[in-house]
Amino acid sequence: MSRTDKAALRQQLRRARQSLTRSQRRDATRRSNSALKPFIHRGHRIGVYWPVGSELRLDAFVRAALARGASVYLPYIEPHTLRLWFTPYRANAAHAERARGQSRLRIPQFSGHKIRAHQLHTLIVPLVGIDRHGYRLGQGGGYYDVTLAHTRTRLRPRTIGAGFACQQVAQLPHEAHDMPLDAFVCEHGLQRFGSHQ
Predict the structure, then answer these.
(1) What is the model's pTM?
(2) Residue 138 predicted with pLDDT over 80
């Protein structure tokens, strides 16, 4: 699939996500956050994402994780590298060290003790699309692809894509180095892939 085809697919899937009504989005968000709660364990380190645009919000899941004694982390982008660090979660963007990105898609970057993905127990991954085999279509920046590739020879966190049902397609193009996610959570519940089914 060419870059142009991928861009068109991203646009199509974003439109599907944006077309959800307020009521549909509220209900889907509640159900998805609830479906993620079994992954919360006291003392575990969970990576989440700061939602941008119409991405699924994880507020209820994060509150539950913190209340149950888990540690929650957000991605931290260092300049000139695609491999992500993760820093302790902060709910208020006003406390950000800096913001990364353009216009309304500015992602706050929080200071704090940085860890790598292999030090997380679970990593909740944002996506534009996902197929029925666990292959993910992201924003196109490559941050999660590079980050997950570095966990190939290490202890790997459980990776869970989070989104809406309208973001799942039958098949996405992927290359030999692409790593499928372990599961996908949406308003219809949890779907496991591969050896995790």
Answers:
(1) 0.90
(2) yes
Residue 155 structure tokens: 């202890």
Tokens of 120: 């997380």
**Residue 174 carries which side chain, given as an amino acid letter?**
H
Phi first, then psi: give them for residue 136, nearest 5 degrees.
-110, 145
Cβ contact 49:123 at 8 Å = no
Going by the DSSP 8-state scheme, the letter that residue 19 receives in this structure is T
Dist CA 152 CA 150 (whole Å) = 6
Looking at residue 173, its amino acid is P
Q: What is the pLDDT of residue 196?
A: 47
Q: How many CB atoms within 10 Å of residue 28?
A: 20
Query: What are the structure tokens assigned to 38, written together?
Result: 């079994």
Strand partners of residue 71: 45
* CB neighbour list of residue 2: distance below 8 Å, 6 or more residues apart: none
Structure tokens at 73: 């982390």
Greater confidence (96 vs 114) lies with 114
